[in-house]
């Protein structure tokens, strides 16, 4: 039975499963480009699942928290539960994707294995650029998964091995980036990572500045100079992306959503939303 995109409780994994896959019992979905395009999800979504997407060279554009990625090289896109992202409607969809629930690895890994992987956590590196050999190796994993996608006793082991490979790749790139990134680039990443983790509870620039041992004034001026946005605007961008997912994926009231996002005054939240989107929260929900 097909399931419509009902905003009363829109779970992307559930929607894809019921709309495009006959077998609804498996805790994983192998999703190709044509399925993504047919799904036509054009608003920010909050993951309730884990996702690994392998892209070919092309034009893939995705917004994850406060980072807008324009991906033109072979890359991995890695998202865990709670991460809000938006695939741009004009982007090429990822070529190979597996979405899966935590239960997939029961008996193969500890209960904390998935949640401990930094690329699945808020503020982590969610996009890894791949060298040719790494792309070939990961593509081989996806070919194995496609071959054994109906084998419930085999596929979890392939996914676990793939994650171990990605973890090794992630830390290798992290080590290399420590020497390649400039001090300014490291500061920008540190700020954005903290915003992704704390934006609901902490919206004051002073909180992030203190963590970076600089003044709020310097932080905002630095970010404006390097990114074109002030610290406050970076924080608001993440709040708005989260708000959009809540407005589209739930029937929570604007007051409830504003409370979840850390605003005690829903009218103040609505004012900020309308200033950024040129629509009120309810107008955005209805469009």
UniProtKB/TrEMBL annotation:
Keywords, in A-Z order? DNA-binding, Transcription, Transcription regulation
InterPro entries, per this entry?
Answer: Homeodomain-like_sf, HTH_AraC, Tscrpt_reg_AraC-type_HTH
Q: Name one GO molecular function term.
A: DNA-binding transcription factor activity
Q: Which residues cross the membrane?
A: none
Looking up Gene3D superfamilies in the UniProt record yields: Homeodomain-like
Residue intervals of the HTH araC/xylS-type domain: 189-287
Which PANTHER family is this protein grouped with?
A: ARAC-FAMILY TRANSCRIPTIONAL REGULATOR (PTHR43280), TRANSCRIPTIONAL REGULATORY PROTEIN (PTHR43280:SF32)
Q: What is this protein called?
A: Helix-turn-helix domain-containing protein
